[in-house]
């Protein structure tokens, strides 16, 4: 089966984006997007687990029967998550303390099992790893975008505490965008996550509409792919 | 017949495969755990030391705080269970102690505090470990949100009379925040009680640690 | 045969939205005047700015949605949202706070759901809660009665000058919530400007809103059900959990009726025809729910006053209330209520 890498990229980053289109993994998306550093930390962790789990699942896809497929997948994902958790504890301890329960919860993130089932179980190792990577990147970018907007609106600053993730070089990265900013608490509190997320989805739909309007000829051919797909399957 | 016969075999095969994968994944996790264990321990200790060293000024002690601890349980500290206290020494002489205390009467529940007291009874510093106060009002007790918590530094039972350990609104010496009185006054009272505890047990605390290096129940 | 399908409610009224809204604004004027007597021109400035911002946001979104602006502005509904917000927010609030509150009320509370008649939540209360959660310090600094000068208020509103000492005062509900060990008599003796039931300003402002509300009832702008339900529930709750004069007291029933935004809520907020229940029994239950929630949050919750939170929570329940309180249809013996009556 030949794999179109260009299509995989477009799907993961835009057309079938796990955060904005499939609306999967909303819990960590809402819970850890209150600052850039938290968002980036969890985004990278999810991306790593997703890429590795896709590769691992693809590797063993012919060795397991359908009956025990799911337990095996879950075991692989849980093991990988635990490894990431241990590594974060060892190298980014403070960030690990902040993200807390959301790291072990990566195991239950629907995107990961979804991609394992929908893609990695049917494709070769390289393309599965790439799919996991690009889907993870799509998720991480949405997480990062929400994190940046919420931190900026909530505190008037950007990139505070980046040294928790990137080490001492990032100590002075805090960028005070608005001087004497009152702080808009709502953005940092949970409702802010829903509002920013909704606005991001609206923005994406708006851009899609614009693009469609500009290319009326392609409407027919691309109609199926532009449908909002809530399942994890790739529209092919 | 053949279906019935083959069922146990397929179950057996699946069980073996599943067991194999369980063994492999556990092995991988165990391997990584082995590899990172010492580093995790180190990181955890460092984070703890970092938090403690913010309270006591650098150079005021020369021992490893985590090696001289006591387990304390006293109603004046307000903790729900026994909590560790950390002793600081300079050249073998008692320098300071860091107590854990709880203010039970915050605006929304308990506020857990780390309170550093020098051997002569002055407050070296106070930090908030955990709280549930209203964002934007009561959370100004955090260092990241305001400087209020630093106003404790240097206070003692001697330079601040017993009835001045309150917020200004209740005729005390400590500022309250705009829109919040309950939170700061709960913290002030908890710090006051911790100082009283230290005053009553001062010598006992340091003596017990000098005599035995291992953690010890007290009093 | 042509059968026209008309959904309920089947009652026909000849009042236009515009007339109703105009009356609501008129009825709020006594409250506004009394409020101005205590806080100078602050409440008036609040109301004017909020109305201006509200009309501005409404026009902006209508333009984006390509709807006729003048047509929708003329129903005055957005003006009511602005006026109610201006009355509910602390007098002389900073201009940006008013801007954020009206922005969220009109854009997120009303227009994003499809405009007038489509919003599940009371827009004014939504805007109020957004700023209450976001800017708690500004929302808890009410000016003291007769204290703020005109220039002082203006510079607080537009230049962000903080209140001078003595210009702001904790509200009675705040004082009660923060009471530590005083009996009620001692507490109110120490409170400057305490009147008969509550602080002088809040009891008179509440009285004015009560009168305005009674006039609206008389004009049949709405029925008595929702206000009576809310005030009755609040009264009963505060009677049960009163606790007398001791330091653990939760305040007397009359204190609760004439403190905070009680009357404004009962006669101007929960009577909103869009976001509240539609049947009369539903409205009664809606009001009772608001009254109970207000008391619970005031006495045991994290905020001193609770009209906005209670109204939003009950807005969530309104569709369910409507479902269970469908009125009897003419010509049938019994109203069918509850789930699962459709297919029988």
TrEMBL record, chain A:
<keyword id="KW-0812">Transmembrane</keyword>
<dbReference type="GO" id="GO:0005886">
    <property type="term" value="C:plasma membrane"/>
</dbReference>
<dbReference type="Pfam" id="PF02508">
    <property type="entry name" value="Rnf-Nqr"/>
</dbReference>
<keyword id="KW-0813">Transport</keyword>
<keyword id="KW-1003">Cell membrane</keyword>
<keyword id="KW-0472">Membrane</keyword>
<feature type="transmembrane region" description="Helical">
    <location>
        <begin position="184"/>
        <end position="203"/>
    </location>
</feature>
<keyword id="KW-1278">Translocase</keyword>
<feature type="transmembrane region" description="Helical">
    <location>
        <begin position="128"/>
        <end position="149"/>
    </location>
</feature>
<feature type="transmembrane region" description="Helical">
    <location>
        <begin position="95"/>
        <end position="116"/>
    </location>
</feature>
<comment type="function">
    <text>Part of a membrane-bound complex that couples electron transfer with translocation of ions across the membrane.</text>
</comment>
<comment type="similarity">
    <text>Belongs to the NqrDE/RnfAE family.</text>
</comment>
<comment type="subunit">
    <text>The complex is composed of six subunits: RnfA, RnfB, RnfC, RnfD, RnfE and RnfG.</text>
</comment>
<dbReference type="InterPro" id="IPR003667">
    <property type="entry name" value="NqrDE/RnfAE"/>
</dbReference>
<dbReference type="GO" id="GO:0022900">
    <property type="term" value="P:electron transport chain"/>
</dbReference>
UniProtKB/TrEMBL annotation, chain B:
<dbReference type="GO" id="GO:0005886">
    <property type="term" value="C:plasma membrane"/>
</dbReference>
<dbReference type="Pfam" id="PF04205">
    <property type="entry name" value="FMN_bind"/>
</dbReference>
<comment type="similarity">
    <text>Belongs to the RnfG family.</text>
</comment>
<keyword id="KW-0285">Flavoprotein</keyword>
<keyword id="KW-0597">Phosphoprotein</keyword>
<comment type="subunit">
    <text>The complex is composed of six subunits: RnfA, RnfB, RnfC, RnfD, RnfE and RnfG.</text>
</comment>
<feature type="domain" description="FMN-binding">
    <location>
        <begin position="106"/>
        <end position="198"/>
    </location>
</feature>
<keyword id="KW-0812">Transmembrane</keyword>
<dbReference type="GO" id="GO:0009055">
    <property type="term" value="F:electron transfer activity"/>
</dbReference>
<dbReference type="GO" id="GO:0010181">
    <property type="term" value="F:FMN binding"/>
</dbReference>
<keyword id="KW-1133">Transmembrane helix</keyword>
<keyword id="KW-0813">Transport</keyword>
<protein>
    <recommendedName>
        <fullName>Ion-translocating oxidoreductase complex subunit G</fullName>
        <ecNumber>7.-.-.-</ecNumber>
    </recommendedName>
</protein>
<keyword id="KW-1278">Translocase</keyword>
<dbReference type="GO" id="GO:0022900">
    <property type="term" value="P:electron transport chain"/>
</dbReference>
Automatic annotation (TrEMBL), chain C:
<feature type="transmembrane region" description="Helical">
    <location>
        <begin position="224"/>
        <end position="242"/>
    </location>
</feature>
<dbReference type="InterPro" id="IPR004338">
    <property type="entry name" value="NqrB/RnfD"/>
</dbReference>
<comment type="similarity">
    <text>Belongs to the NqrB/RnfD family.</text>
</comment>
<comment type="subunit">
    <text>The complex is composed of six subunits: RnfA, RnfB, RnfC, RnfD, RnfE and RnfG.</text>
</comment>
<keyword id="KW-1003">Cell membrane</keyword>
<dbReference type="GO" id="GO:0005886">
    <property type="term" value="C:plasma membrane"/>
</dbReference>
<feature type="transmembrane region" description="Helical">
    <location>
        <begin position="254"/>
        <end position="271"/>
    </location>
</feature>
<keyword id="KW-0285">Flavoprotein</keyword>
<dbReference type="GO" id="GO:0022900">
    <property type="term" value="P:electron transport chain"/>
</dbReference>
<feature type="transmembrane region" description="Helical">
    <location>
        <begin position="20"/>
        <end position="40"/>
    </location>
</feature>
<feature type="transmembrane region" description="Helical">
    <location>
        <begin position="46"/>
        <end position="64"/>
    </location>
</feature>
<feature type="transmembrane region" description="Helical">
    <location>
        <begin position="306"/>
        <end position="324"/>
    </location>
</feature>
<keyword id="KW-0249">Electron transport</keyword>
<comment type="function">
    <text>Part of a membrane-bound complex that couples electron transfer with translocation of ions across the membrane.</text>
</comment>
<feature type="transmembrane region" description="Helical">
    <location>
        <begin position="283"/>
        <end position="300"/>
    </location>
</feature>
């Amino acid at each position: 089966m030949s794999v179109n890498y260009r299509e995989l990229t477009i799907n993961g980053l835009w057309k079938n984006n796990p955060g904005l289109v499939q609306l999967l993994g909303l819990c960590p998306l809402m819970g850890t997007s209150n600052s850039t550093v938290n968002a980036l930390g969890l985004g990278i962790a999810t991306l790593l687990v997703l890429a590795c789990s896709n590769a691992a699942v693809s590797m063993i896809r012919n060795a397991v029967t359908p009956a025990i497929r799911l337990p095996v997948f879950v075991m692989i994902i849980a093991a990988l998550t635990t490894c990431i958790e241990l590594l974060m504890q060892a190298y980014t301890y403070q960030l690990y303390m902040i993200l807390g329960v959301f790291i072990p919860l990566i195991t239950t993130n629907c995107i990961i099992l979804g991609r394992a089932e929908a893609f990695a179980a049917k494709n070769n190792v390289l393309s599965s790893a790439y799919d996991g990577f690009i889907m993870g990147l799509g998720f991480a970018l949405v997480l990062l975008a929400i994190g940046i907007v919420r931190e900026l609106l909530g505190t008037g600053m950007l990139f505070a505490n980046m040294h928790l993730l990137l080490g001492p070089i990032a100590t002075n990265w805090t960028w005070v965008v608005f001087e004497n900013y009152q702080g808009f608490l709502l953005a940092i509190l949970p409702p802010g996550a829903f509002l920013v997320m909704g606005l991001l989805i609206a923005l994406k739909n708006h851009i899609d509409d614009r693009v469609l309007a500009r290319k009326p000829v392609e409407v027919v051919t691309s109609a199926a792919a532009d449908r909002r797909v809530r399942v994890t399957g790739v529209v092919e | 017949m053949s279906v019935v016969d083959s069922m146990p075999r397929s179950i057996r095969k699946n069980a073996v495969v599943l067991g194999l994968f369980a063994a492999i994944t556990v092995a991988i996790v165990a391997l990584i755990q082995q590899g990172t264990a010492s580093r995790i321990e180190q990181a955890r200790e460092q984070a703890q030391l970092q938090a403690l060293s913010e309270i006591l000024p650098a150079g005021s002690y020369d021992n490893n705080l985590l090696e001289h601890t006591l387990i304390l349980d006293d109603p004046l500290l307000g903790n729900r269970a026994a909590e560790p206290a950390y002793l600081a020494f300079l050249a073998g002489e008692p320098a300071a102690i860091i107590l854990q205390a709880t203010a039970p009467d915050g605006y929304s529940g308990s506020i857990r505090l780390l309170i550093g007291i020098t051997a002569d009874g002055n407050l070296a510093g106070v930090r908030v470990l955990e709280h549930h106060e209203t964002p934007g009002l009561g959370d100004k007790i955090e260092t990241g949100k305001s400087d209020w918590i630093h106003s404790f530094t240097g206070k003692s039972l001697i330079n601040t009379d017993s009835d001045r350990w309150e917020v200004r609104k209740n005729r005390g010496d400590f500022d309250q925040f705009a829109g919040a009185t309950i939170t700061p006054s709960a913290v002030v009272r908890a710090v006051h009680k911790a100082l009283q505890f230290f005053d009553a047990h001062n010598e006992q605390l340091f003596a017990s640690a000098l005599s035995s290096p291992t953690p010890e129940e007290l009093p | 045969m042509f059968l026209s399908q008309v959904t309920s409610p089947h009652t026909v009224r000849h009042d236009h939205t515009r007339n109703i809204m105009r009356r609501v604004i008129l009825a709020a004027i006594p409250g506004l005047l009394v409020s101005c007597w205590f806080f100078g021109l602050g409440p008036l400035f609040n109301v004017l700015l909020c109305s201006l911002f509200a009309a501005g946001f409404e026009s902006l979104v209508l333009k984006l949605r390509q709807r006729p602006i003048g047509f929708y502005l003329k129903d005055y509904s957005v003006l009511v949202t602005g006026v109610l917000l201006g009355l509910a927010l602390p007098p002389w609030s900073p201009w940006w706070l008013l801007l954020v509150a009206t922005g969220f009320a009109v854009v997120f509370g009303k227009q994003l759901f499809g405009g007038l008649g489509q919003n599940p939540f009371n827009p004014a209360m939504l805007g109020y809660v957004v700023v209450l959660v976001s800017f708690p310090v500004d929302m808890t600094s009410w000016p003291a009665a007769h204290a703020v000068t005109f220039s002082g208020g203006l510079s607080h509103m537009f230049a962000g000058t903080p209140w001078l000492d003595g210009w702001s005062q904790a509200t009675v509900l705040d004082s009660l919530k923060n009471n530590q060990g005083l009996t009620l008599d001692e507490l109110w003796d120490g409170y400057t400007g305490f009147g008969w039931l509550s602080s002088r300003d809040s009891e008179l402002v509440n009285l004015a809103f009560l009168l305005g509300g009674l006039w609206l009832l008389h004009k049949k702008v709405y029925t008595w059900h929702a206000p009576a339900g809310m005030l009755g529930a609040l009264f009963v709750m505060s009677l049960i959990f009163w606790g007398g004069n001791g330091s653990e007291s939760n305040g007397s029933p009359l204190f609760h009726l004439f403190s905070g935004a009680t009357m404004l809520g009962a006669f101007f907020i929960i009577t909103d025809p869009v976001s509240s229940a539609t049947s009369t029994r539903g409205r009664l239950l809606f009001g009772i729910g608001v009254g109970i929630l207000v008391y619970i949050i005031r006495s045991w919750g994290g905020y001193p006053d609770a009209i906005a939170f209670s109204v939003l929570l009950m807005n969530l329940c309104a569709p369910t209330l409507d479902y269970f309180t469908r009125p009897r249809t003419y010509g049938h013996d019994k109203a069918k209520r509850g789930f699962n009556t459709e297919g029988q």
